[in-house]
Amino acid sequence: MAELNQKQIENQKEYFNKTVKSWSGTIEEFKWFVINDSVLRMGISDKSKILDVGSGTGVLYEGLRKYEVNKYTALDISEEMLKELLIKYPEAETNCKSFDEKITLPYQNYTHIVIFNSIPHFEKLDVLFDNAVRHLSTSGKLIIAQVKTRQKIKAHHKKIGFDLGREPIPLDETLIKYTEKFGMKLIEIKDDEYFYFSCEKISSK
Per the CATH hierarchy, to which homologous superfamily does domain 8-201 belong? Predict the structure, then answer.
């Protein structure tokens, strides 16, 4: 799978549009484990309404399909990624927008907003949480999951000589700060086999 370098991170849309094929290969065994384990933690059912933020070519959707969820929307900054997703999953709904900018989507009552394996690409956590709380139903969950732990992703970045200039995965205290700022309730933070964070919208704000 292709990696970002320092110049490429500055124009993520162009980068992902150009490298789409390298992101749509076979799902590695451990990533498949993380997808399935994360989906179990989310409490997905056939009533769930999912916004998959930074969906790429639909790796998370593969783990959701067996639940026959009520609604699924793939959101990504790259139109080429979404085109590739639709080749594999023509039934999916897609929207080409950045969650790093304040947006208003046509649907605003999701039960789950999931950022799977893409949190290092989001710089503006205040915007991310604001977008999430405005598009979640009451008791809806924001989930951030990453295949690599904090330590492993930082070690990987060091190995390839890449520096974001910030934490690739936000620290616990940072995530807790934004959870509280936006009136949400922390559910879980784990950082052992892989990284997983979830919080819940507790009001109609």
Answer: Vaccinia Virus protein VP39 (3.40.50.150)
